[in-house]
Task: inverse folding
């Protein structure tokens, strides 16, 4: 079964409207997490070290986990209108130092393929909705076999 992840794409250091980071990422075909760095890192190891030094060890660990999730893993996010979007990881980590990425506080990105179709609250697996209902801004795995099967089925339908 392919893992699924909650990707809220909300920077911890920004007070932006709900969904701003997700809408930025969807428009660019990426998924991302926060923690801006003072200098653009040349490698993932440099980024992890810089994130840990600037934002704490937890930030470094989160970045390492985000970068190590296998391509093909499913992603769920929510946009400003409250709808959910389903995607899949499609490439390696990079640091996006663009003005747009800095504005939404989502510089650590990976390519992602997103379905065009939005999903409503009652269309997503219950474990996905429950994970978002708990709040939080971290990228995290949703460990629920039923949600994994339902997500794969939704992806297949498109």
Result:
């Amino acid at each position: 079964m392919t893992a699924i992840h909650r990707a809220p794409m909300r920077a911890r250091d920004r007070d932006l409207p709900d969904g701003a980071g997700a809408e930025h990422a969807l428009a660019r075909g990426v998924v991302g997490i926060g923690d801006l760095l003072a200098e653009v890192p040349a490698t993932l190891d440099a980024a992890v070290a810089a994130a840990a030094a600037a934002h704490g060890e937890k930030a470094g660990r989160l970045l390492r986990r985000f970068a190590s999730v296998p391509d093909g893993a499913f992603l769920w996010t929510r946009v400003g209108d409250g709808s959910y979007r389903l995607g899949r990881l499609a490439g390696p980590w990079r640091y996006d130092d663009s003005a747009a990425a800095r504005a939404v506080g989502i510089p650590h990105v990976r390519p992602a393929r997103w379905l065009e179709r939005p999903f409503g609250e009652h269309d997503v697996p219950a474990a996905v909705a429950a994970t978002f209902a708990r709040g939080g801004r971290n990228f995290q795995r949703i460990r629920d076999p039923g949600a994994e099967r339902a997500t794969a089925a939704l992806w297949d339908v498109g």
Q: What stands out?
A: DSSP finds six helices and seven strands in the chain. The beta strands are 4-6, 30-33, 74-78, 84-89, 94-95, 108-114, 140-142. Residues 98 and 107 are 8 Å apart (CA to CA). The helical segments are 20-28, 44-55, 57-68, 99-104, 126-133, 145-157.
